[in-house]
From TrEMBL:
One Pfam family linked to the record: DUF1501
Lineage, highest ranks first: Eukaryota, Sar, Stramenopiles, Ochrophyta, Bacillariophyta
InterPro entries: DUF1501
Organism listed in the record: Minutocellus polymorphus
Listed name of the protein: DUF1501 domain-containing protein
Top-level division of the source organism's lineage: Eukaryota
């Protein structure tokens, strides 16, 4: 269902001529364990994954670190398949908010944990400044 919804949305944005001014960003407040619990479901975990799309997005990149293995003894795997995150959410929201035109002086208010993050992605990392004729702001 999400594929057809995104396909329709993207087609409408392109037809309207504003695709270069649009960013689609996924987000979640928690990840899931890689193994099932006793009810054949999964439990809350730490790490999660996100994607962004848009006309000005520099595609084909992976930010953060994928686990070397998904085996229980993996380097960032804890009990029951809980993956330890390697990249804070603030890291990628920083670049998106810069692209939206949020001033550097306001980013700490919008992302209060931003300065506790080891690596912040920037607008330049994530977006092609020459990719579109229109900007988000």
């Amino acid at each position: 269902e999400i594929n057809s919804a995104l396909k329709g949305f993207i087609a409408a944005m392109k037809a309207s001529g504003i695709w270069d001014s649009v960013v689609i960003a996924s987000s979640s407040d928690f990840g899931r364990t890689l193994t099932s619990n006793s009810n054949a479901g999964s439990d809350h975990s730490w790490a999660s994954h996100h994607f962004i799309a848009g006309g000005s997005v520099k595609g084909g990149q992976v930010f953060g670190h994928y686990p070397q293995t998904l085996e229980p003894d993996g380097n960032i795997i804890l009990g029951r398949g809980r993956v330890v995150p390697t990249t804070a959410d603030e890291a990628y929201w920083n670049g998106i908010l810069e692209w939206f035109g949020v001033k550097d002086s306001e980013l700490d208010h919008v992302l209060p944990n931003r300065k506790r993050t080891a690596r912040l992605f920037t607008e330049e990392d994530m977006f092609d400044r020459n990719g579109g004729t229109e900007r988000a702001n």
